[in-house]
């Protein structure tokens, strides 16, 4: 029990680790060095004209930092250094001093105390030095016969602008006396606006500071680094092993109920217009899932996205005993007030070659539990989607859509009346109409506690060449109100109708008097005897949200569903735990979510559902979620 407690504690601590890339772009183009105007600076103060920005001279390259003690405060993204500070800039200049401080988000640093600036073959004594990367300005307080201040533009240290007015907080040193240190080190490499690479750091794991080979922290604004290819887990503790400004390799220590504690590697390769993300999860369990996601914005009006997933029963990295795969491709192109999208899917039920017949002529790998299934269904769909349009001056909006597609399975997609159909074509049209946030009752107090009415209607018809057509209609209505700045409520109703119409062959496809008997509950569900392809789900729901502060939030969702044909509970064991596979929607359900912010970088989120003893066995859902987020 103590070992399990320690493992869970370690996972929670690992979840604090910032899981982002970092960079050691030491090869970044250096600043262009200007020739010095004179062999030594003049000690006499003289106001120089305002420096003019020259983009060709601009540089924000990576710089290295050494100090007796480097500290990184992850809650505030502040980097400090004390004792024998040395900063080597990308342009070749070197700054030493007693104290270093950098506000990562403001993208500037200060060196103070016994400062020496080494540039262009000269050594300058000073009291403080500051570099503003966003403006490519360097500020220096030299030690001369009379007080002075020098401003450099684009790293041209031979041409200081003397006596210029400096920002009021140019040499501000932040107070971190009350903040906790996340990483200690003696050397790191900083890529402004991107990342920090710590060399042989000591990391705070909550219970102790532990030496580590290296660590990356990525604070780039590029959203493509946030893409995730791994399946969900209760707890995820990432360790960024190595990477750069455009790539990252992360080893994740994860936990979920089916697999327990396991390792899962993930890599990213990104730019402003594309990303490539791959992972293996869990890597240390036989049932592995390989995921590979790709995205590229080819032009402002054209983008492509693809995913590939392989599921395998595999011991280590040996040949799997069973493997299946799925792939998808989506190509999207912009049109005036609309866009076209081509989506294709491929399924491989068995990736491995056909095995030799085994016991009783069965086809399987190793043992009959890993059987060979040759099915290879695939489909492709081309859809047109219009943008939202307003109906005259009414608060009503609509969007239109249409499409054409085909599905194929060599072993047959449908068998009816003695005819097997391996290929089925379809055509689709749809419309969505919404009336959002209509003021039902206005709050005259001015506190914005108005009661709003939200309405929407969505209808789709799909024709198949079998022949038959399916109609789907979804009507939503809700009333919402913000009671105060902490509490908000929502009450709504949903009606969903699905109809499969076969004309004169309706009774052949959906024969009457076919009641369903459940071996789980030992009950007969007579509504299936009256089912002829027309199904309905009606739902009432109430949602309450409470946000006490940025540190605590909770929500409760109560839902009552009424299905025709009626919902049937299903239960089966999965990975040694009880799992549900119901037909239809659970009649009564309560979902609870509670979120705690333990620190500026760690959030714990808990979700669970209660099914009110559905089928005599389903009370609390076994699929509750407990996640550590950042």
What brief labels describe this structure?
21-stranded antiparallel sheet; 3% helix; single chain; lipopolysaccharide transport protein A fold; mainly beta
Briefly characterize the structure:
By secondary structure, this protein is mainly β. Helices cover 3% and strands 55% of the residues.
Distance between the termini: 28 Å
- In CATH terms, what is the fold-level topology of the domain at 22-36 and 54-219? lipopolysaccharide transport protein A fold
- Chain-averaged pLDDT: 83
Which CATH C-level class of the domain at 22-36 and 54-219 is it?
Mainly Beta
Low-confidence stretches: 1-58, 573-578
- What structural class should be given to the helix and strand makeup? mainly beta
Overall geometry: elongated
Strand content: over 45%
Q: Label the CATH architecture of the domain at 22-36 and 54-219.
A: Sandwich
The quaternary state of the protein chains shown equals single chain
Task: Explain how this protein is built.
There is one protein chain. The protein is an all-beta fold and 630 residues long. The chain is built from two helices and 40 strands. The strands form five sheets. It has a 21-stranded antiparallel beta sheet that branches. Strands 1, 2, 3, 4, 5, 6, 7, 8, 9, 10, 11, 12 and 13 form a 13-stranded antiparallel beta sheet that branches. The relative contact order is 0.07.
């Amino acid at each position: 029990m103590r070992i399990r407690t320690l493992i869970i504690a370690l996972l929670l601590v690992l979840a604090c680790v910032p899981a982002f890339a970092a960079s050691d772009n030491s090869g970044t183009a250096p600043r262009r060095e200007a020739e010095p105007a004179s062999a030594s600076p003049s000690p006499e103060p003289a106001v120089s004209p305002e420096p003019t920005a020259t983009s060709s001279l601009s540089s924000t390259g990576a710089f290295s930092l050494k100090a007796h003690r480097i500290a990184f405060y992850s809650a505030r993204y502040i980097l400090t250094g004390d004792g024998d500070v040395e900063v080597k800039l990308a342009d070749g200049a070197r700054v030493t001093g007693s104290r270093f401080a950098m506000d990562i988000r403001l993208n500037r640093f200060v060196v103070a105390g016994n400062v020496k600036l080494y540039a262009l073959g000269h050594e300058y004594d000073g009291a403080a030095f500051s570099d503003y990367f966003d403006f490519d300005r360097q500020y220096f307080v030299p030690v001369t016969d009379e007080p002075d201040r020098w401003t450099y533009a684009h790293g041209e240290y031979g041409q200081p602008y003397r006596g210029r007015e400096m920002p009021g907080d140019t040499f501000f040193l932040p107070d971190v006396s009350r903040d906790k240190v996340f990483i200690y080190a003696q050397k790191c490499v900083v890529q402004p606006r991107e990342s920090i690479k710590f060399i042989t750091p000591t990391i705070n794991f909550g219970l102790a500071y532990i030496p580590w080979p290296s660590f990356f922290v990525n604070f780039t604004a590029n959203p493509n680094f946030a893409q995730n290819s791994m399946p969900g887990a209760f707890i995820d503790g990432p360790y960024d092993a190595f990477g750069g400004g455009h790539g990252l390799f992360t080893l994740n220590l994860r936990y979920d109920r089916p697999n327990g504690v396991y390792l899962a590697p993930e890599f990213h390769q990104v730019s402003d217009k594309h990303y490539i993300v791959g992972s293996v999860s869990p890597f240390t369990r036989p049932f592995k899932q390989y995921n590979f996601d790709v995205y590229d914005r080819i032009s402002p009006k054209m983008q492509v996205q693809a995913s590939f997933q392989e599921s395998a029963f595999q011991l280590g990295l040996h040949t799997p005993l069973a493997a299946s795969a799925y792939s998808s491709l989506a190509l999207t192109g912009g049109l005036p007030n609309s866009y076209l999208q081509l989506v294709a899917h491929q399924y491989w039920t068995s990736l491995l070659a056909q095995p030799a017949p085994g016991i009783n002529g069965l086809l399987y790998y190793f043992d009959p539990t890993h059987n060979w299934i040759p099915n290879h269904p695939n489909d492709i769909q081309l859809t047109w989607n219009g943008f939202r349009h307003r109906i005259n001056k009414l608060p009503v909006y609509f969007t239109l859509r249409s499409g054409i597609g085909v599905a194929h399975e060599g072993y047959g997609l449908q068998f009816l009346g003695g005819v097997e159909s391996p290929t089925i074509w379809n055509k689709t049209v749809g419309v969505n109409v919404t009336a959002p946030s209509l003021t039902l009752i206005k709050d005259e107090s001015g506190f914005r506690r108005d009661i709003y009415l939200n309405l929407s209607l969505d209808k789709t018809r799909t024709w198949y060449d079998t022949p038959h057509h399916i109609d789907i209609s979804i009507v939503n209505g809700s009333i919402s109100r913000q009671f105060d700045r902490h509490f908000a409520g929502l009450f709504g109703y949903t009606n969903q109708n699905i109809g499969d119409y076969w004309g004169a062959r309706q009774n052949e496809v959906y024969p009457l008097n076919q009641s369903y008997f459940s071996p789980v509950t030992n009950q007969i569900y007579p509504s299936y005897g009256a089912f002829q392809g027309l199904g309905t789900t009606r739902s009432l729901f109430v949602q309450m949200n409470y946000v006490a502060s940025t540190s605590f939030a909770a929500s409760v969702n109560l839902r009552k569903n009424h299905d025709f044909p009626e919902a049937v509970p299903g239960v089966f064991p999965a990975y040694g735990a009880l799992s549900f596979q119901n037909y239809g929607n659970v009649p009564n359900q309560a979902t609870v979510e509670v979120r705690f912010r333990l620190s500026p970088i760690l959030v714990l989120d808990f979700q669970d559902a209660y099914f009110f003893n559905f089928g005599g066995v389903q009370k609390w859902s076994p699929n509750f979620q407990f996640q550590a987020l950042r």
